[in-house]
Amino acid sequence: MAETGKIIPVAIEDEVKTAYLTYAMSVIVSRALPDVRDGLKPVHRRLMYSMDELGLHPGSATKKSARITGDAMGKYHPHGDASLYDALVRMAQEFSLRYPLVQGQGNFGSIDGDPPAASRYTEAKLSKVGDEMLTDLKKETVDFVPNYDESLMEPSVLPAALPNLLINGSSGIAVGMATNMAPHNLREVCAAVCAFIDNPEMSIDELMTYVTGPDFPTGGIIFGRRGIKEAYRTGRGKLLVRGKFVIETNKSGREAIIFNEIPYAVNKGSLLVRLGELIREKVIDGISELRDESDRDGLRIVIELKRGAIIKVVLNQLFSHTTLQSSFGIINLALVNNQPKCLNLKELIHYFVEHRVDVVTRRTRFDLRKAEERAHILEGLVIALANIDEVVAIIKASRDINIAKMSLQERFLLSEIQAQAIVDMRLGRLTSLEVEKLQQELAELKTLIAYLKSLLEDEKKLRGVIKDETQSISDRYGDDRRTEIVNGEVENINIEDLIKKEEMMILISNLGYVKRVPCSSYKHQGRGGKGMNSAKLTEDDFVEQIFVASTHEYIMFITSAGKAYWMKVHELPEGTRTSKGSHIKSLLTVSPNEDITAIVALKEFSDDQYLFMGTARGVVKKVKTSEFSNAKTRGIIAIRLDEGDKLVSALLTTGKDGVVLISRKGQALRTEEEYVRPMGRSSRGVGGMRLSNDDELTGVLRVDGAEKMLILSEYGYGKRVSFDEFSPHGRGTGGQKIYTVSERTGEIVGCVTVLEDEEIMCITSQGKSIKLAVSSIPIMGRAAQGVRILTIDQPDFVIGVDRIAQEEKMIEINNDACAPEASGGDETQDPEEDENSLRDEPDEDEQNSDS
Description:
The protein is built from 19 helices and 41 strands. The chain is an alpha+beta fold. A hairpin with a 3-residue loop joins strand 30 and strand 31. The N and C termini lie far apart (about 120 Å). It comes from Breznakiella homolactica.
């Protein structure tokens, strides 16, 4: 029976743990992380060493990339040739490395994401910068280790005459850790290295006066220094990088944004595709055409704007939705003595300088040994030439070379190496000129030996050599910064800051169409005019609500179901005076059985401001505006309404204001807001005004001594009334008469508080509107019917009135406003409706004032 092997039971968790740790360490040390000394991963180091062995230096001809990757794969890097070629390609790409280490010939890919040609088509050699990484490699400056099959030796690190890790950066994902190091400017890094050599105790902040920040090969703009400082102090930081652009105007007068630099590692092809999608989907508005005019001279992305487009708004959208603004997270993780470590700026420079000290020390020892060996030989040759006749005689008398060497060693006290050099000497060296050359060479070697010994004895002098070599590198290969650094953190452009503050009239029709129209679109008219068309509506639709607010304010919509929604006024669709507008349900998530019954404008949501609401049945309620901050367009409950009741008015209050509730039948109740306690959003409210069975509440006004109440009836009559005409009463009472309702005037349909120098906007159910000065409407007593404000052609009727705020108003005044043709209608007034012929009717007693 054949002998079987021994089975050793192993716990699966132990085996997995051991295997995974082995794999993890292999990835960390031998694949993904760069060495802090030369800034290279093993694959890059092996490629560059293979190119050095193939003699592919800057002055030589290029060789096929397949030859290079094949050589590296067969000798040192037993992995896939695709990964090797990818690494070689990246080292040759000017948009990937700030200072490419390889000079490629052929198609090595593009910033558009185009792949490189196959390795059999492209050729490469070391660039001048790459060649500096291998300087003095053959002078025993670094340790060599066996390759994967121990048949050859490869360098464990390159001498690296320049700080490659800092100037080119690195990126890689290991197991449980990752590195993402930014490239820097060679001049700045070399200046910092030189400064550090002079003063190793200098602080990170002092080093940052030399290294101002990353310098990406694709340029761009870094906003703010906070992320840079964090990265340099802790090894981790986050940068915000934007593309660089200029504004150009073409012959037709249209403006275009030209991007000639984009953030680092952004694929231009993917960027353009994404940009095109956003333009088609109208996520980014105001762009008429997108073109890529990049060529061999540089990158050029042309974004032509539509007429009237605001450049800053378009830029904000571009930066918000595309990679034209992207963040770069810095993780300065590198291998220090084969252990991963997160390094700050000072440590990165320190380890590079220490590596250079070790390399230059070993190079000096190598040069010293070679110089001493050569000087030793020259000393023997000089002795031989001084005694050439005797030397020739000894050699002639000797039976063979070994005896001749021994005889020379004994006669002139020479070493075996010197004796060998003498017997190998050609007869041509016996000329007097050659003798002088030997003596001169020996003298020079003695001087060199003395210098090299002084370097090894004085570390300060040795560091001076490193400083000089670093400065030489900077002088030869240094260039200007490409990436601009802007002080101060990036500011997301607030679109509101770019939108003109302007009073807007917001119109809502019975069928739910909403739009905003600049108040400046309406001409100033005298009272009694017929007004201008404000909306082209369908036959079965009519304008139901009118509201005036600034573009920067919030506008809150409260529906018949008692739900509140808000949005910014500038977010509403802007239209012309005669446009139909957009349906409110396309802007808000309003259910089919809901109608907008009240709207209110506010600047912010706070605990010190209240929303005071009144329903048709006289119920009132106040709620803190902070309760609505998360309503937005999805809506939240504002008031719980009784069946058959509806919200008719809502206004902002301070919590201590006086309010006046006005009914359609001409009753008004002045009361104090404090009588109504603050409630939650889902509560019903309390009784505010006692109404007769056929009466309804038409509006609620806030008491302001500097303002007057303006009342408007459904057939176009109105007046102003002072708050002082009414005495305060408790809530739940019937109030006092504010208007004498008749068949000619119709019921009260609108009320608003106004100042003397303001203007108001009135609108009818058929969409006609009129804007006129408040001063043209007289102040009258409580029972007066007022004057004709708007001429109504029945069956049309007035549905609302609102004030145009004095501040920020933009009025288009017609110089001939008083002329008949400017009024928009017949200015001839009925004598009995003339202001001078109207008289105040006797005030009636207060009704239900004590109830």
